Fold this protein.
Amino acid sequence: YLASLGELTPQPGAVNLLDEAQAAGLKIGLASASHNARIVLEKLDLLSRFEVIGDGHSVTNNKPAPDLFLWVAGGLLVSPACTVVIEDSGDAIDAALASGFWTVGVGHAGVSHAHLVALDGLADLTLDHIFEAFSKNEERR
């Protein structure tokens, strides 16, 4: 969820969230069904922000299958239960949930079943907000 269709500018809040994650020492990966994910990241000057990039070439069964999320988590050496997936697709949220990932749904396109929903996009989303929401979800388990 980094580039709008037709534009090559980061979505509002995306770079701030990446900055926060890097400052916190978190591992960052990208799971994109696009075959052009690396090219887009290069043009956005964001390629170096990601330790692992999974794209349309990385797995046989792409989204909405969970394989790409699991591939990226494996590359980062983290378990799904310790990983946050930020997605703007309801099918991708389903795949992440089925594999045990924490989920943040962005926008209005069928993501209301995510653990946390950011209806207005990434602009107001912070790590503190994410961690607080997941802490509350964990208490309910």
In short: The chain has a mean pLDDT of 89. The chain is about 35% helix and 15% strand. Residues 62 and 124 are 29 Å apart (CA to CA). The first helix runs from residue 14 to 23.
